[in-house]
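Changelog entry

Holo records now carry the ligand SMILES as an explicit input line rather than a separate metadata file. Below, a converted record for fe (ii) ion, shown in the new format.
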Amino acid sequence: MTDFLTDVDTLRDRARRNMMSGPVTASYGTDVDRVVELLNTALATETVCVLRYRQHYFTAKGLDSEPVASEFLAHSNEEQEHADRLSNRIVQLGGSPLLDPSQLTGRAHSEYRTADDLKQMIRENLVAERVAIASYTEMINWIGAADPTTRRVLESILAKEEEHADEMLTFLEPQG
Ligand SMILES: [Fe+2]
Ligand SMILES: [Fe+2]
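Structure line, unchanged by the conversion:
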């Protein structure tokens, strides 16, 4: 048997002894509190994005606003799904999702910016997506191989933010 693996008796014994740690075992590769903190930063980022996109959805106006506004709503809903997946992972790791509204903008990496003009809204959303992309990429790199499940959660969210950024960019490009 491969000698880098913990022997099965020790694995079984630890699993039984530290049962109340749920899915977090002695093989967990990093500081779980730091991972929870990082996930709470991502949760705040997503929640700010939910609210910004929703505000833009309701206030977008003008002849060509309809397809853009419906994309804002779709993105808002997807950011909420991301937030929920992050909350779920935080709880799995024994943490608590931090959703106190008075602290969200302080913790988030993205910004809550409103605009009167449709183009300006699109630009704000593109910037926020790019902030999220850079932020999640750094989180993923920091986690490395230490927590594959959290890494996968962040990677799948990252892929979606890249799609979002691309869609916002398409609205800014000249048509035809
Ligand atoms: Fe998101
Ligand atoms: Fe996004």
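Spot-checked after migration. The pocket of fe (ii) ion (ligand 2) is lined by residues 49, 75, 79, 129, 132, 161, 164 (CB under 6 Å). The chain has a mean pLDDT of 94.
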